[in-house]
Amino acid sequence: MTVSWAAAPENGAVIDTYTVTAEQGGAAVASSTVSGSQLSVPMTVGNSATDYSFRVVARNKAGSSAASEPSNPKRAFGAPGAVPAVRADPLDNAVQLAFEPAAGNGATPTYQYQVNGGAFQPLAADKVVRSGVPNNGNYTIGVRAVNSMDGETFEGPVTNSNPVAPYGKPFPASINPVTVTTSVRFDVGSVANNGRTVVGLEYQASDGQSGSLSAGGGSVSVGNGYDQSVSITVTTVDDLGQRTAVGASGRTAPAKYMVVMNGSKSPGTCEWPTNGTSASDTRANCAAGGGQFVEEGTRVQLQCVTNGAAYTIYDGSSGASTGTTSTVWYKAINNLWIRPSDGPVDSGVPPC
User: What single string gives the DSSP state of each residue in 162-193?
Assistant: First the structure.
């Protein structure tokens, strides 16, 4: 390092020499003598974590001056050593570093890192790299020690870590419930990797179903009737066995009904074993055809509507034929077939 000073008063005689002494811990460790015309000198001292101070003595033909007051403390330091034993462990969108301290060479170094040979960044005290290392990538982290003091900076050599691939828990699947009359179809979306490979999706449904889907997703139908609340749980599994579960629920369609109202001349109607008969809905015809007679005012739950055998339509108040026919049949919840009556029918009965 270079030591400089102001000229001493001559006091009647020219200054012949200046002697600069370096002290450490109160003891002299080095000195250098220069001519009286020189007001600075480079001093060679060992790098050390202990500060140095400097005193200057002027000399002319009359003798030597008293030593000056000590200079401000000054540290001698150079570039730090290599960082030993750098290890990188994966975190979620981050990397945990571990290493031994580098030789300080006269200073206490700080540390910097680079990702895959990129620009250096300051390393946090917890040694976690949080920038530039997203999941689903492979990285090598370079670490170097840096000494900075008194306006000077020295950088040590770079030590590279082992390759590292950050990862987190698998992402949850997306689930979209779609009501399909007497069931709910749960559409399960594909799941992207989160640093580890998704090996599959496992599901458990409220109706007792269980099974698996690929990482690309799929569909699962749950429920077997109207007005049912159903649910499903889908668990994403990766190649480390990590699991992330998510649930969804839905409800099957409301039940559809018709009210039997055939009029005073032909009260009630028949639920037939098939929709292939043209016989009228009298109680006697119903019994002969193996059907089940339904009394006037009964509310019948329906499954679906379709076309079947043509039948004559009768006027409910007179009992006479209207001269028209119909082929519309409803399938009741008990799997028997019933014709429309003059009573109300819920809208939206699905086709059979």
Answer: --B----SPPPPPEEEEEETTEEEEEEPP---
